[in-house]
Write a structure and sequence with these properties.
Largest sheet of chain B: 6 strands, mixed
Shape of chain A: globular
Oligomer: heterodimer
Number of helices of chain A: 6
Strand content of chain A: under 5%
Strand content of chain B: 15-25%
Number of strands of chain B: 6
Shape of chain B: globular
Structural class of chain A: mainly alpha
Distance between the termini of chain B: 30 Å
Order of helices and strands of chain B: HHEEHHEHHHEEEHH
Chain lengths: 123, 218
């Protein structure tokens, strides 16, 4: 009887409206993005956060959350590291088919901007 | 012991599904073209707080992605739109959704508007309020889901101790809230309820793994 009730509690918690296990590991993504908007000098901290979270997910062979590779790529782009940006946009593209249109457009425009269009750094 | 467990089980069920009341809206437009990917464009702002739109933008990717959608990188999208000369969320919202969806190759565009983001100060308590409108538009321009959420918070003093102690505690709470009203937990609660609770919750997207096969990652 007690076992049945425990099963009922666990099931109701799992299937209930509020509690579902997260699908992705976000780390400090949200609070770091917020902090970078609040104080632009925190952009570097956001970059460190994204890098360590991506490394952690890759190490544990978990799927990196949607958008995370691309957000890191954009931070590299803004600090002038175009090749690294392209590499992260390519990672986003390969991880998420829905991002292909946007990532292809970004990569293409960045490669056109590189002058002369030498070898590609995209992995 | 058994009755205690039964009470707990019922309480869990009730608490888990709080906020189920209300009438469900017509979801046929959504079901006709369920999106896989959602572009969250910068937030429009009817409040007086100029920083609120960016703060709210930061709270949206996680709940949407955890609903099972591909969510376009919000900060990258914001940077790209700025390069197109669209700096303010209000300005972005005037663009045709078809154009925005095409620019990013998105299935749907989520427009969020801040109606309220304010703190009302009284002598002892301060009430913090946020209110958001959510509108999800298909790439052909059809509105496929919308919702509105208002959240309020007033710090409560613990009801132990003497009346004077309660008053002092309330005054301290009000002073703290006044110095730095903390809107972010309210904004997150509003998102969570608007997207995931009640009859008008956003349906799950394609990446949401059924619980039976889901892997707990923490």
């Amino acid at each position: 009887m007690i076992r049945l009730l425990i099963i009922a509690i666990v099931t109701s918690t799992l299937f209930g409206c509020a509690v579902r296990p997260p699908m992705y590991s976000w780390g400090e993504y949200e609070s770091s993005l917020y902090a970078s908007y609040k104080d632009p000098s925190k952009v570097e901290a956001l970059q460190v956060t994204l890098e360590s979270q991506i490394a952690e997910s890759e190490r544990l062979k978990q799927k990196v959350p949607p958008g995370m590779y691309a957000e890191l790529g954009t931070l590299y782009l803004q600090s002038g590291k175009t090749d690294t940006a392209i590499a992260y946009y390519s990672k986003e593209r390969n991880a998420w088919p829905e991002s292909r249109g946007m990532m292809d457009a970004l990569i293409k425009s960045l490669e056109l901007r590189k002058n002369p269009p030498a070898e590609q750094a995209a992995k | 012991m058994k009755s205690l467990l039964a009470v707990t089980a019922v309480a869990t069920l009730l608490a888990g599904c709080a906020g189920q009341q209300g009438v469900q809206k017509d979801m046929s437009a959504f079901r006709a073209a369920p999106p896989r990917s959602i572009l969250v464009v910068p937030i429009a702002n009817k409040s007086l707080d100029v920083d609120a739109p960016n703060y709210v933008l930061a709270t949206l990717p996680i709940p949407l992605a955890e609903k099972g959608y591909y969510v376009f990188p919000v900060n990258t999208a914001k940077v790209i739109l700025e390069q197109e000369g669209l700096y303010e969320g209000d300005r972005v919202h005037q663009e045709p959704p078809e154009v925005l969806a095409k620019l990013f190759d998105a299935d749907a565009v989520l427009y969020v508007t801040i109606n309220r983001w304010d703190a009302q100060y009284a002598i002892i308590t301060t009430t913090v309020t946020v209110e958001f409108d959510y509108k999800l538009v298909n790439r052909d321009g059809t509105v496929i889901w919308d919702n509105r959420k208002t959240m309020q918070y007033s710090p409560q003093s613990s009801n132990s101790g003497s009346a004077i102690a309660i008053l002092i505690a309330a005054a301290i709470n009000a002073a703290i809230t006044r110095a730095a009203p903390n809107y972010m937990p309210l904004a997150k609660q509003a998102n969570s309820q608007a997207l995931s609770q009640g009859p008008n919750a956003l349906p799950d997207g394609p990446y949401r793994v059924p619980i039976e096969q889901g892997k707990t990652q923490r």
